[in-house]
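Hi support team,

I submitted a single chain yesterday and got back a structure, but I'm not sure I'm reading the token output correctly. Could someone confirm the output below corresponds to the sequence I sent? I've pasted both exactly as they appear in my results page.

Thanks,
R.
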Amino acid sequence: MISAVLHIVADDAVVMAREAFEPLGRLTIRPSGGIRPADLADADALVVRSGTHVDAALLEGTPVRFVGTATSGTDHIDLDWLESRGITFAAAPGCNAQAVAEYVLAALLVVSRRLARPLKGPVLGVVGCGHVGGRVARIGRALGLQVLECDPPLAEATGDARFITLDELLARADVVSLHVPLTKSGPWATAGLFDAKTISRIRNGAVFLNTARGGVTDDAALAAARRDGRFAALVIDVWSAEPEVNPELLATADLLTPHIAGYSIEGRIAGTRMIAESLAAWIGEHRWRVRPDLHAPPLPPELLATVQESAAAGVTALMATVYDIMADAERFRLAVSGRAAGDRSGSGIFRNFRREYPHRRELSSFVQAVSPVADAADWLSRFLSDVSAGP
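Hi R., thanks for writing in. Yes, this is the structure output for that exact sequence:
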């Protein structure tokens, strides 16, 4: 039975939780990863992000009847147990898709510069073509790349001939980017999909990016492939034993971050909004009262001049202004390397990095600042399509 005044417990990683949920009832905010059953003794609803694991150990014996995660991924939620107890569940699929796709773009620009390889020409292989993978594929095409797509469940559901087998993709792709959910059962289970055998089928000299889930890959096999030179570059945002940091990947990855690819402020607010709307509908309300101030920030005059002079140089400069992926990667690497003796696994650094992560904007907000007279989406498409032409 729901309380007369709805009691909502949210973890502190849920951005704008007070603005979103206080209009719906009494709100208690607890530390992400630190919520205990005692915190839920009189709670009706629980709202989390991926740092809080929700299962029988947390909820058994509590009155919680609604669980929402302000994330697209759900592998931190025991969905079967929730269903068995009749607990309503809501997620936020696609909320951070643009942020993750832009992380991939930022990584490709950095890797391209490091390897002295132009972005025009390489074959981009996208494994998993849902919300995020679909956007990555569109960005790849806008950059002038040949894009290969592999998504067996989607291929089966749609019959679309553009989807190819994983073996064909791995044999042909110069860049392999993972965007699959972590699933442990069924005909298309992804847990451990990229083990040593699968990784050995990736063509030599490829760039490998994982912004999906750490459990999809074999960390030791990835590290070995980079260490042996079979990968030209390795980009890691997700880890198999999060929040623990794998020392082999720490030593071999070219860019590594603690699961923050989707951490744009736009994406995080979208996740909160989607759960607030689901919770409001669950109690018979239909409202989203938050009006976040997300005006496009000003851009330096010299950057505007660069954009006007050359789209190729402009997109690189604009992306560096929007998101400095190198700064994140180096800050994280330095923090983990200098961690305190009591944090041998690096999990404390991992959690703190995410908890204290600054607000990161998405490219679309800056596009409007650069081209106020044109439709932002059309301008961005034209802008990115010019990148392959060179400076």
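A quick pointer for reading it: Residues 301-389 form one domain. Let us know if anything else looks off.

Best,
Support desk
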